[in-house]
Design brief:
alpha/beta; five-stranded antiparallel beta sheet; 357 residues; globular; single chain
Length: 357
């Protein structure tokens, strides 16, 4: 069952609320300073388009995000909520909760229900399908109703650390080591993550001291999901038995790798431009690719994946595709779902396979 949190008495340290005063570190003054500094660094504070669209699930992170935007943004704040059609009445409860919360903050909300189990692609996990469909739906709702260039997501420092560790363990290389970027651009829309510098519990404490409720997704406690296992089992063990500052160190490591990745991005684009012959379907010149070393071919492959918004290949799978490109034989490589990579003479073609069944 879901849990809904509102009571200040749930603080582990009740002394924080002595004299019914909000502790300084959670005060409007401190939060506004952080918010403005983050907006200036990321670039959204001075954006000409003054419509901020927050993706709000109803969880503590996204609720804190919507509250911070409504309090300090200074422009028009909108919100979108996606009901994934996975958790039945609980998900419907999340949707109603977010609608009521948005109304109380004078934030215009658009919600939509999708069916992730029905629409997931072959080979996709429920988690991956939910992320893909959520992104597609957020873009769709924004384009239809808000026309904003700025969409805000509620990822926090714990999410960043968890993603860095998860990506390192599954072998995604430098790009994966960055974890989560402060902002990214998809189809001309920028996605900002202003909460990446804040811990998960700090965000919930912001809500607790103000008596603001949030919802907890019951699936977040299911450790059969890899990310939940890392969050609930692996990282707590690391913090307890290896280093109590593991979250901070992983997040710092991700930041250190950002500059390396930015240099790699420039190289990747240059190599892709040299080898690309056609955009639809995206086609590469196999002869030119073979003049690159293995690492350079890998960079091209990963750049194509980003360009086509595909699931990131593990290092092993990426190396497998590099080897296929190197060999003279024809090949057919399934990237994910219905996306195939195939060779025809001296061309490498990335195209979607339509399942007729």
């Amino acid at each position: 069952m879901f849990k809904e949190y509102r009571l200040i008495s749930e603080f582990t340290d009740c002394s924080m609320m002595l004299n019914n005063k909000i502790p300084y570190k959670f005060s409007d003054y401190v939060l506004k300073k952080y918010f403005i500094e983050t907006g200036e660094r990321q670039g959204w504070l001075n954006s000409e388009n003054k419509i901020a669209v927050a993706a709000v699930s109803g969880g503590g992170d996204s609720v804190a995000l919507m509250w911070l935007l409504s309090k300090f943004y200074g422009g028009h704040v909108k919100a979108v909520h996606i009901n994934h059609g996975i958790r039945g009445d609980e998900a419907d409860g999340d949707e109603n909760f977010v609608k009521n919360l948005a109304a109380s903050l004078n934030v215009e909300l658009i919600s939509k229900k999708i069916n992730v189990p029905l629409e997931k692609l072959k080979g996709e996990s429920i988690e991956t399908a939910a992320r893909r469909l959520r992104l597609e739906t957020i873009l769709e709702l924004n384009q239809k109703f808000f026309h904003s260039q700025n969409i805000f997501l509620g990822h926090n420092k714990d999410d960043l650390a968890e993603t860095v560790l998860f990506n390192i363990l599954r072998g995604t290389g430098i790009r994966g080591s960055v974890g989560i970027t402060e902002w990214s651009e998809i189809k001309g829309v920028k996605f900002y993550r202003p909460l990446l510098g804040l811990r998960r519990e700090f965000l919930r404490d912001i809500l607790r001291v103000r008596g603001i409720a949030w919802r907890e997704d019951s699936t977040n406690s299911d450790t059969e999901y890899t990310r939940n296992f890392i969050r609930l089992k692996l990282l707590p063990e690391i913090e307890q038995n290896i280093n109590s500052s593991a979250i901070e160190h992983l997040a710092d490591f991700g930041e250190d790798m950002r500059e390396v990745r930015e240099r790699e991005n420039l190289i990747s684009l240059e190599l892709l431009n040299k080898s690309a012959e056609n955009q639809s379907p995206l086609t590469l010149n196999r002869k030119i690719l073979r003049t690159f070393n293995d690492n350079e071919i890998s960079l091209v492959i990963r750049e194509v994946g980003r360009k086509l918004n595909l699931r990131t290949l593990s290092r092993g799978r990426c190396n497998e595709l590099v080897n296929l490109i190197r060999k003279p034989e024809k090949f057919l490589f399934q990237w994910c779902g219905n996306m195939n990579v195939k060779s025809i003479k001296d061309k490498i073609i990335f195209e979607e396979h339509i399942n007729e069944n």
